[in-house]
Amino acid sequence: MENNEFWKEKLAGYDEHEWSKHPSIFAQDVARLFPPRGSVLELAGGQGQDSRWFASQGFNVTYSDLVEDVVQKVRKQVATDPNITCLAVDLSKELPFKAASFDVVYSHMGLHYFDRMETRRIFANIHHTLKPDGIVALILNTIDDPEIQTYGYRQIEPHFFEDPRSGLKKSYFSSGYVQELTRDLFEQLLNDHNGKTYKDSVQTLVRFVGKKR
């Protein structure tokens, strides 16, 4: 299944859960590290709850997601909020923004579907998009996720696996792997395995916040 169709179905299911209507644990934890009332780009924003919350905190927000139907739905929900712009953005392509456009680039569990080379390219694109001293804030799948062993995922390369049930390919991160990918791009402000979500039982997700070098 193509990623667009996969996420169209997945996000439709998320709408049924109460947690999808509230800002994530990660967003509320890391907003203290953002510059006050700056511009935020959210990548792979899903239902848009974090973008809506950032806007309520005084940020000027650009929400983005791969799935056009989801983007249209969020656009209708925030139609009366002048602080949010909604765009369809495919992370497998170059980010459609000028250099130094945003104070913050943020993503909640949205950067997993790329191999090492593509992930490195996305980090470089984020760096290009950020203003001087801009902040990147990401929460990512953990290499400690038990589903890798439980379902017999096939390793394609270090940190990159294929789910034998669906054929979907996913990256699983460690704090060391993130540091390796970003060390020449961002100064680390936070890099640990203490991330949690309302949705998942795994409580060792990788949290990374960095400042543009």
Structure write-up:
By secondary structure, the protein is an alpha/beta fold. The protein has one domain (about 5, about 25-200): Vaccinia Virus protein VP39 (Rossmann fold), CATH 3.40.50.150. It has helices at about 5-15, 25-30, 50-55, 70-75, 115-130, 145-150, 175-180; strands spanning about 40, 60-65, 85-90, 100-110, 130-140, 155, 160, 170, 185-195, 205-210. Strands 3-2-1-4-5-10-9 form a seven-stranded mixed β-sheet, with helices on both faces. Helix 3 links the parallel strand 1 and strand 2. The termini are far apart. The model has no long low-confidence stretch (mean pLDDT about 95).
Number of helices: 7
Major beta sheet, strand line-up: 3-2-1-4-5-10-9
What's the name of the CATH homologous superfamily?
Vaccinia Virus protein VP39
The portion of residues forming beta strands comes to: 25-35%
CATH domain class: Alpha Beta
Instruction: Label the overall shape.
Output: globular
CATH architecture identity: 3-Layer(aba) Sandwich
Structural class given helices, strands, pairing? alpha/beta
The count of domains is 1
Largest sheet report: 7 strands, mixed
